[in-house]
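User: Teach me something about this protein's shape.
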Amino acid sequence: MNRIDRLFGILLLLQRKSHIRAEDIAQTYDITVRTVYRDIAALHELGVPIVSLPGEGYRLMEGFYLPPLVFTPDEASALFLGGRMLVHQADGHLPDTTISALEKISAILPKRTANHVKQLSDIIHFTLPTRKFNLDDKRLLLLQNAILDHRIVHIAYHSLKDDLLTERDIEPLQLTYGNGTWYIHAYCRLRNDIREFRLDRIERLISTTYTFAPRETQQQTQDIITVKIRVKPEQVRWVRERQHYGFVEAKYDDAYITMTYEIHQFSEIRAWILGWGARVQIIEPKALVDDIRNEIKSLLELLT
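Assistant: First, the predicted structure itself:
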């Protein structure tokens, strides 16, 4: 890191913290305390009002602040490319809001940075799923408010296993979007456990007036299931092209490649594995082997 970037970084540290010691600054940037003293003096010379607090370190004089929009070319590019992806993937008011925000940022960027961003925008394009998410969806807004207010939500839910419609009260905790679907992570009072519910399987959704207190179990993440499959070398390229989102790592030996995945339930990976037929072999867990075997038996019954 050159000195100009470091000085700017120290200034950001001072703005974020009420005070900071020279030793902490030195550790952050892997420099000596003596170098910190020189950097603080340089900032003083640039007109930055830094106050020295005996025994506590440094702080900015009250009332001083940095201009809020100072981006490097890479940071500006990340914002614009991410914004373009959001515009193409979202419905509702969010795309227009994103475009307005990007126009404001673009107007204050230095010419060199603005040109860099435009060049990247011209040569990078995204092919995204046609199914968009809508952050203005009334059910999504209801769940967002319920999470923030710790309110119990009553749902009528279609289960995947037998498509039974069950009525249940849930304590909503988190919303996740993946594979074209919204999921609600919640404590289910019917099952007395943490569950993931697909929003498109919820037939009725009612926010109640009852609130809930955080449970210890709500601070825990779902159990992770580690799945390992064995793939022949000639199939690896094709598996990588259609790689499952739970992929963790690949290990090579003389004859096979072992790929590791992390999921929360077998339904997340079942169809993906079945799509490869006999070209992949499940190593673990055995319960997944049994699950796939049962699925194949059900398919055979339908075909005979």
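Now, about its shape. The chain has a mean pLDDT of 85. Residues 73-123 form one domain. If you'd like, I can walk through any region in more detail.
User: That's plenty for now, thanks!
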